[in-house]
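Lab notebook, bench 4. Still working through the backlog of constructs that have no structural model yet. Next entry is a single chain of 361 residues. Request: give me the structure tokens for it.
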Amino acid sequence: MKKVLKIVLSAVMLFALAAAFTACSSEEEDTGMRIALITHSPETVLDDGSFNEGSWIGIGNFLTSQGLPLTPGENRQFFAPHAADDAVRINIIEQAIEWGADVIVLPGFQHADALSEAQDMFPDTTFIILDGAPTPIGDNVISVNFAENEAGFLAGYAAVREGFTELGFMGGLSIAPVQRFGHGFVLGAEHAAAQMGLAPGSITINYQYLMTFAPSPEIVTAAGAWFVTGTEVIFAAAGGAGGSVMAAAEANNGLIVAVDRDQSGYSPTVMISAIKTLDTAVYDLLTDVANDVFQGGRSVTYDASMGGVGLPMGSSRLTTFDQAMYDSLFADIVAGRVNVSGSLVMSEILDQLTIVTVIEH
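Model written out:
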């Protein structure tokens, strides 16, 4: 009987030790934070050369820094709504949370209204929204904006310093980030013209909002008409529609300034890109979450002083505007020595600048 009892007790102890080992192993295999990225519309893709791609790279960089796997479905997952509708976006947020998302990254202002509801529905979830903000901004949300006017200023200055005098700006929707890109571009062109001592009226800028971020044959035609009639460089701050401007440049020996991310590899017509460091912003904020120092309920602007905007000079096709010129101008922007305002209306810009043609519709 004693032998039987000893055997039973030994079995129980072995079972308990095995259970404890399994629990420890589960803890060791815990892959940590789970992060979802949700696009704003069904047609958007991860490799968009813009917001989604930049955000996804930022998530990947963060996971790598934490020693966590990059395989989709483990620590990061990509979700897309089946319709560009706020109710659908809220449903996708719920699906991401059911998957296990601790943090949800929302690239694009289109998420703002849905997030205004979702932040209260899911108070234990942390949200990072780029280029937009819910109303009000909840304690579990941080809104990230960028100083597009500074990036645009650098691009406009570079174009004129490069020797171009016939410029164009094609923005997507007439919304604040796009306006900041355009106004900065105009101010940068004027600053360069003044430094070079060019006569008033020496720089011509055609300026237009396309009222869409979607590519289309009509945009190819419109940009092509600009190139044919003398425009040398078009700054395309237009999301996917920038691809149509790029196609027009390729067909008409034109050049473009791309936007958001370095797009030099997309086409030899990309002279330079006015970038926003989306990956850096997402990485920084995820790191704050991991270190338990995340501060929600606010909006933060990534500007030149934070490395939030700039020109990727290493991949530029500029020949006159060099790294030394760039570094000097960048330092002037950080120090506030030049006017890079992104809040001006176009009529105010025209009062100050040597611009001949502006089309704003």
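Notes after review: Residues 1-31 have pLDDT under 50 and may be disordered. The chain has two domains: 35-146, 148-275+309-352. Flag for follow-up if needed.
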